[in-house]
User: What shape does this take?
Amino acid sequence: MGEFLSDWKRTALCAEFTTEDVGKEVTLMGWADTRRDLGALIFIDLRDRSGIMQVVFDESLFKGDFSKVERIRSEFVLAVKGKIVERSEDTVNAKLPTGYIEVKVEELKVLSKAETPPFEIADGAKVREELRLKYRYLDLRRAEMQKNLILRNKIANAARSFLQDNGFLDIETPMLQKSTPEGARDYLVPSRIHAGSFYALPQSPQLFKQILMVSGFDRYFQITKCFRDEDLRADRQPEFTQIDMELSFVEADDVMELNERLMQYIFKEVMNIDIQLPLKRLTYKEAMERFGSDKPDTRFGLELQNVSDIVANTEFKVFSSVVKNGGSVRAINAKGCANIFARREIDALVEFVKIYGAKGMAWISIKEDGLNSPITKFMTDEEVDAIMKRLDGQVGDILFFVGDKNSVVFDSLGALRLKLAERLELIKKDTWDLLWVTEFPLFEYAEEEKRFVAKHHPFTSPMDEDIDKVKSDPENARAKAYDIVLNGNEIGGGSIRIHSTELQEKMLEALGFSKEEAWERFGFLMEAFKYGTPPHGGLAYGLDRLAMLMADMPSIRDVIAFPKVQNASDLMTQAPDMVDNKQLRELHIKVVE
Assistant: This one.
């Protein structure tokens, strides 16, 4: 059993001392990180969340049984009393903030002993992620993980400070609420009191924050948990955290202007990086046509070019038939790649775009001795010349073409563009590419359901000039929606909301709800709209994703203290788990095999 603190009080964290503290008597507490035993002299790096302090046990100065020092091992929890001294010149460690000082220890308490950890508590150690997550409490001791969570805390605090200084009120909304169709599958919570009825965990606070605007609170924010029962990937979790906000009496420009200043403030406060305003804006149409993505990474070129008009009547039927059927043929010029890519690498890229629905990919390699391509023999010289001019084709370039319906062309070439940028190392590190994408489609067509669904959510307002298109031409109706994008990742999205019962009914009707179904699901919102509703809009950031990008981590699991894995389970606690029959009976539930 470990010793107790009793009257010992920690002076400060390990890495908070400097050479100005030389001569001070201090009490430090933390974990034994590394240990060097020179017999009568034992050095231990004492670690806490601030960093490392070297503490020195000299048998001639130590007040107590020196064998207790000799028994210290990695991850023992220690409290030490001693004096800060300067290190001798030959033992200075300039890589550490505390590398010029150390503590000569006179007294020691071993507060807790530790078994040998299943992996080394060190940055850069080669450890399987499954093992890290099973022993997450050990993984979180690593300096990298602590740095990530401290950065996340700073982002949240900066956002909270800015929003409160700009007139926002932090108001909580319910975790147990009515199940409403918002796009993803709900997590359901059975009610013990109301047999056969269920609450849903919130996919977002969307409806409640709109009702807060009806209630006259004018500016709301919340840093809150949201839940979506959907398939996971590197930047998605079943529970995630939003920086959520809503404002009254605003249009899209007002929301975007305020959030540009919020981003500028967060980057300055957290990383001392200056973000230049205003941020650039791209319409959804322009983003898709130039970059093949509604979250474009504009830190490099490789922009898409439309060559549909050139190949509309070409003898290469793969292209001409696509254009005749309403699709398009677009291309990317991979500058200089003809001298880099072997044929097998080109073939691998052809297979790569098939992942995104493309049936294939044509290409033209421009060599010193002419064009190398399987398609130019089906084209006239005029068509080839026009393509070269459109794409600025030069000796050494490879031109890649995909022809299909627009959604497939954009997905395929958008993904190829990112693949090429990675392969060619075109993306500069430590650059912060923030921009807005605006004028999203109000609807998108769901092939599986054979109907239109909301591109964002059913409460997004159509653009004023497109209100009539909600029923008559849903495919071309645009939304007052806007996403903020960082380095090719959507970090936040929002819109101006519908604020009239009549327009909300029309929107839900376009999504396939009868009037009765609409009122059954969303009646409390539309009823609220009857009593005087200000125009309002908002935006929500994914805090996890923003922290992941600012920390330069590959996964949001690296910035969440206790994340789930790919199958939505927690390897540390073994959740989800079975519950006993008594609990199920109380909830009026029977598990069917």
Notes: The mean pLDDT is 94. The first helix runs from residue 66 to 70.
